[in-house]
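Input chain follows. Return structure tokens only.
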Amino acid sequence: MALFEPTATTKVLNSDGTKNGKLERPKFVLCMSFNSRGELITGDSDGNLIVWSSKEPRMVFLHKKLNDTGIFTINVNDDCLIYAGKSGKIVELDSTYQSTGRSFELSENCGGCRCILYLNNNMLIVGTMKNSIYQVNLGEFNFFKCLISSHCDEIWGLSQGNNPSSFLTCANDGLLSLWDSMSFSQVWSVGLQEKLHCVDSHPSLDLAAVGFCKPKWIVFDLIEKKPVFVQSEGSEQIEVIKYSPNGCYLAAGSRDNSIYVYRVSDDGLKYSRVGKCSAHSSFLTHLDWSNSSEFIMSNSGDYEILFWRADTCRQVLDVSVIRDITWASRTCVLSMETLGIWDNGMDGTDINGCCEAKNSDLLVSVDDFGKVNLFKYPCASLKADRKVFAGHSSHVTNCRFISNETRLITTGGNDMGVFQWEILND
């Protein structure tokens, strides 16, 4: 505690201009940097800026309550210092730790500042608490530009986009984002104000269906960037949503154990309910459409595999019919063609998603262990050969090949990452 007590030689400055030297011990020291004299500069959770002697453990300078939200980052450049905190306000100080008059405040949507670097005397690189990186100019013309933007909560929704190189993501942060895989960049991002869980793009129109973490789904116009249809359905969150290959149907799988099937008309702007598929005894996890858009295959939380006719919402029990169905996608983790992705000792929640690259006969699965697993398709034998790839630091939530199947996209849970993998011939 004595370490945080100013001495008689400590220069003290309060934010209100007074020189009261009494200091309460801060809960956290959040950041630190060294100046050109070798002195350590720290910022803490109480918003205090402290300069420490390079020769002994004592304070040289104390600026109390410099930032009401705490000082999260400090960077020193020659005789100047910049600091910022949760509020997003960036302030520059001179060599005497007085304001130079240069500052910049990021909007609330950008998030608080977590890291700052000088590029030169005027230009800064700022990393925020919403997983974005901005270029900020403190010079004569104050401006900022977003260099990298991403999600700031778990990402579960992933779909191919409206052109061969694009893809869509949605997350618990309420953002729906369109990305371009060739330029490694986010094209746009729209906040929908509520937690999102799943997304699927229409096969021929510039529309996407988005499922919420509540009994609600919408249809979103990818050109106008606005919802064009809103529907409340069931009593639980929408777990999976998918258009049929011909674009004439939409299936929404809910955590209330049911699949709600809609007929699509009026160029994707009108949705009329066909019926409800009800036979699962647990919540829906995955579903796939047949190439003909006649049948649906679904998985549930208690490891059931069921089949349905889309136009009647009746369960298909005839094995001879099921045997001859060809599927437009392979995202159901439980099927005869994906038996080999499961290891001994796994439970039904360890694998979060899978997808197939039809042109190269590849199958990818992603799991709770942060791994991306590559198999040959079909993968019907137990203990199938695989290649395992690491990168995510937490559970991997979803995976999709972009529509030309040259890249694989995977999304993360706690790491909130969007990873892109190139498909190479081996």
